[in-house]
Amino acid sequence: MNSRRRCREVSPEEPLPAEAGGRPTKCARRPDHKEVMATIENLMIKLSDYNSATVQGRIEDLSYYVTDTLHIYKWDILRTLVDCVEKYPMQCGAYATFVGLVNVQDYEFGSECLKCVTQQLVKALYEGEWLKAQSLVLLLADLVNTNVLTVGSMLQLLNSLVDVCEEEDASHRRRDFYAHLVLSSLPLVGRELYEKKETVLQTLLKRLQVYIKRERSPGEGTRLLRIFNNCDVPQLDYLELLWLQIKRLMHAKWIEKELLRPYAAFDENLSTALQHHLPPFQPPCHEDDSADYPHPWLVFRLFEANDFPPHMRMPDELDIGRHIIEAHIMETVRLHHLERKICAERLMAYCVAKPTRPMEHCIIEVLLGQMLQLPSSPLLTINYGALIIELCKLVPDKFPRIVAQAADMLYTQLEYMNPSSFDRFVNWFSHHLSNFRYQWNWQDWENSITLPEFHPTRQFVRELLKKCMRLSYHQHIVQLVPASYAPLLPASPDPNFKYIDGLLPGAKLAKHVLDAIRSKCAPELLGGLLEATTELDEGLKINVLMQSLLHLGCKSFTHIFSLLSKFQPVLKMLAHNDANQLAMLRALFEVWSNNEHVKLVVADKLLKMHIVSNHAVVAWVFNPSLKSELVKMYLWELLNLTVRYTKYHMRITEDNQSTDLNCLLLNIAQTCVKVLMDHRKSEQSSEVDYWFQWIQGRLLQLLFNYIDDVRKISSKLREIAFEAEEAKSLSNMINDYLNYIT
């Protein structure tokens, strides 16, 4: 702000000037601290715009405003700057330009800024704030471009970071993180380093090459992270891919065209500034290995060059421009995923800023890649689904077609898809279809009908239809799909009360139980009725009671839960051992044999009411009678709900809770491995064993969901892997998993 816009300062002792007529004039109120900082913060946030011309004007406005208030609000301004850089790391060029313009006017501000950023960098690295650390390194790289920081200082910083990659006793994840920190900054500052310190830059790159090509072995850690277990779909390790992109950039003399560089418009002004040196920097150590460094990940690719519109071209996989575009998209999703409309609008603004690129394809590829990412997606599946729906509504002439194209491409690779990604694909696409009246070219997927029973493509269509029915209703979906889909459609989800047949053992007791419940009897009376029936064994009485309760409550979950709650004392009295608890679950699965959703919800309710135990649920899920059901999603949902409830809600002491959770996870692993080994011994077919692949993949998915807890039983898991040597793929999977988490 220039002097003409400043508020006139008047001393409290100085009399107010008088207007004509003798009345004193009012001086404009000086804005307080909060108002000034709110204005500065608002101006800084606006620098994250994708329009270069707009950003240039905003940088000028901000630098003028800050120059007038710098002597009062310097440290608050620096704190706000660090916060904005953490949120918008891909806009570091704009923030560095702002610092550079202020540095031209106030040399001390540039020095204080570098001191603050360095301190915050050390703090972020020490406290495990990895995203913040990366953002600050990117800012320092761009401060070289704005003539605030010397090239020599930046190279010293980068060499200090590479030193960590050469620590022999450091973990692979620690060394990978620091290598990624350096590589990700080079697209921003590489040209400047190349022009002024080429020899030192080459030495730095050779050190990185030695680490990435010789000392690093990502294979065993990334095998489990492949969304597809075939080689047709590119799935490169994130660090190796970035290294290949940097090598291509180096051969192009460090010239790249995707980054926003607003400082180029102020080059004449910035070149007059005095530069600064960084204070000494030493990456912090974590001697107790307490820092949880980022895990490796694989970069997802779906579309090929011939999938894009003819007049548009996307930078190829080894072009650093691809990395930069994807980083912009991921930043937007990370910041705005809770506000889907704002997020969609921001993504479309980025599309407008890149008119020659097929940005819509890239956005869908990034969203689906994150959603299917292993071992888990950064956000909930519903976040990605809601955003994709919003994009389809915002640009209906482009996004729906691209989403359909992507879904078809994923469909063709289902045979090789990891079960965890498979489940997320089912959940996302069923939700997506439900928002567009389930309109789809179902005829295109009719080939799934003739495939083997447990083939992933056939399983996908079956699970997708069941999820669609859960979001709609049975008859609606039956009428929508072609008649040829009949073999994949589940039966009508109606209850099956077997004691309608009066000749069955227990039918007489069932009639008395139904009459008693309908007459609103007390739980004690019903318990007495069951105890008085001495001619039936306890298992049959439990079956009669459970079937009767579920039959009378079949109208809704509210009815079922009300009856279970009322007669909870009777159910608890009968559920005094594992066999009786299994009998209750068996009765549930008999009544609702055609409704997986009810089986899942009611079994979870019985667990939470402490009628059945968590170990009883595990025993029932792996019961031989459910072998064909074990490939289905709902049983593994039930297992995950059981583990989660044990971990977070069991009313026991903390120590006992931890012990019980460890025992439960170990029980699941042991039982599942035993079931797989028994299956392998009984099935000697030379054909692909899809059933075995499903159960093995689902076990891995569950173990990934509870990595921190599984670490406590890792030694036991190694013993299990050793005992499973006969099933080589199973043993290798467990060992690879243990190597990944440790």
UniProtKB/TrEMBL annotation:
Domain MIF4G positions: 37-250
Major localisation: nucleus
Disordered as annotated region, ranges: 1-28
Highest taxon above the source species: Eukaryota
Localization annotation: Nucleus
Alphabetical list of InterPro entries matching this protein: ARM-type_fold (IPR016024), CBP80 (IPR027159), MIF4G-like_typ-1 (IPR015172), MIF4G-like_typ-2 (IPR015174), MIF4G-like_typ-3 (IPR003890)
Stored SUPFAM superfamilies: ARM repeat
SMART domains recorded: MIF4G
Keyword entries, A-Z: mRNA capping, mRNA processing, mRNA splicing, Nucleus, RNA-mediated gene silencing
Recorded family membership: Belongs to the NCBP1 family.
Known role: Component of the cap-binding complex (CBC), which binds cotranscriptionally to the 5'-cap of pre-mRNAs and is involved in various processes such as pre-mRNA splicing and RNA-mediated gene silencing (RNAi). The CBC complex is involved in miRNA-mediated RNA interference via its interaction with Ars2 and is required for primary microRNAs (miRNAs) processing. Also involved in innate immunity via the short interfering RNAs (siRNAs) processing machinery by restricting the viral RNA production.
Subunit description: Component of the nuclear cap-binding complex (CBC), a heterodimer composed of Cbp80 and Cbp20 that interacts with m7GpppG-capped RNA.
Official protein name in the record: Nuclear cap-binding protein subunit 1
Lineage: Eukaryota, Metazoa, Ecdysozoa, Arthropoda, Hexapoda
Gene for this chain: LOC108611699
